[in-house]
């Protein structure tokens, strides 16, 4: 009998991925577990819940942009959500995710894991503010557990003004962050309930017109 980590089968069934994509996600989990002892990629207490805590949380973003092919993930870290999205979305025509991560060791993890999983991802080891404006063809911008919403808008405003949509998973402080962002920026956003955490929301920013005077 094959052992399945807690939640794996339910997450894969809900996502409706192919057998090949499921195998690639298994490779991602194996890599994450191996590299965790070298570099603290995720909170140690969450590793045992990687399928329900990280993978399912990432996969729900795909359903919010079913037609988008060019994704940009900022502060990718352990590849959550960017590399997971690249693995799961690789069967879509032209799908690609650019991963921006300033930490060299984390960048090495992303590059190696993208290679062995066959994910359509390109890793950019660089500071966000130095490269973000160059991703003008991005349709979706994501960032998870990276920075408060006002800072995310500061980084991504050039892309959001150009037609990209922001998908930013947030926790229980989402309303506070939204209020703070509204004090600085003119933008349009809605809150989408998370499928993995009743207290969490995904902030979908559909447009940014500029800073408030």
UniProtKB/TrEMBL annotation:
It catalyses: guanosine(527) in 16S rRNA + S-adenosyl-L-methionine = N(7)-methylguanosine(527) in 16S rRNA + S-adenosyl-L-homocysteine. InterPro entries: rRNA_ssu_MeTfrase_G, SAM-dependent_MTases_sf. It is found in: Cytoplasm. It comes from the Bacteria. It holds the Pfam family GidB. Specifically methylates the N7 position of guanine in position 527 of 16S rRNA. This is Ribosomal RNA small subunit methyltransferase G. The lineage of its organism: Bacteria, Pseudomonadati, Pseudomonadota, Alphaproteobacteria, Hyphomicrobiales.
């Amino acid at each position: 009998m094959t052992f399945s980590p807690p939640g794996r089968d339910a997450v894969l069934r809900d996502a409706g991925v192919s057998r090949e994509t499921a195998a690639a996600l298994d490779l991602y989990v194996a890599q994450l577990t191996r590299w965790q002892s070298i570099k603290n990629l995720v909170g140690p207490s969450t590793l045992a819940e990687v399928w329900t805590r990280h993978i399912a949380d990432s996969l729900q973003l795909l359903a919010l942009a079913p037609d988008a092919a060019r994704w940009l993930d900022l502060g990718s870290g352990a590849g959550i959500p960017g590399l997971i999205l690249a693995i799961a979305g690789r069967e879509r025509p032209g799908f690609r995710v650019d991963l921006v991560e300033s930490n060299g060791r984390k960048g090495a993890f992303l590059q190696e894991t993208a290679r062995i999983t066959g994910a359509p991802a390109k890793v950019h080891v660089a500071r966000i503010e130095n490269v973000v404006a160059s991703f003008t063809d991005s349709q979706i911008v994501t960032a998870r557990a990276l920075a408060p919403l006002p800072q995310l808008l500061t980084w991504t405003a050039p892309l959001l003004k150009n037609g990209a949509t922001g998908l930013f998973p947030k926790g229980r402080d989402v309303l506070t962050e939204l209020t703070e962002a509204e004090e600085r920026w003119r933008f349009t956003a809605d809150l989408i309930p998370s499928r993995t955490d009743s207290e969490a929301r995904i902030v979908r920013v559909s447009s940014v017109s500029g800073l408030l005077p």
